[in-house]
Amino acid sequence: MDNLLMKKDLTAEQLSIVQSELDKKSKNKVIMYLLWWFTGAIGGHRYYLGDAGMGIAMTLTLGGFGFWALIDVFFIGKRLETKTERLERDIIEKVKGYTKTIA
Fold first, then answer.
1. pTM
2. How confident is the model at residue 50 (pLDDT cuts 50, 70, 90)?
């Protein structure tokens, strides 16, 4: 379900809770690209995003001998967006579930 549709039923207080939690837990795009620049060959940016399996594979192959690391710069931005959307969805579901148990 789209996050906007999920958020339309939330109160202003719940929306501020969601935004606060998202700000605390989300990853920074600048940091991710800096990690790619300095540690791309060993997958530092993948570890930062929580993709440990991909990070280990990049470490063991030195970023696919550099090719994987170069190609990855075009895909990690979308991966960050996907992770952030999933994180926001999880937070919304927790806020909705928490308020239902209180009511």
1. 0.82
2. very high
pLDDT tens digits, residue range 27-46?
A: 999 999 999 999 999 999 99
Q: Which residues of 38-67 are buried (b: 16+ CB within 10 A; e: fewer)?
A: ebbbbbbbbbbbebeebbeebbebebeeee
How far apart (Å, rounded) are the C-alpha atoms in residues 55 and 60? 9
From residue 76, how far is each of 9, 46, 88 by CA, in Å? Answer: 31, 8, 18
Nearest to 35 by CA among 24, 22, 50, 21: 50
**Residue ranges per structural domain of the chain:** 29-97
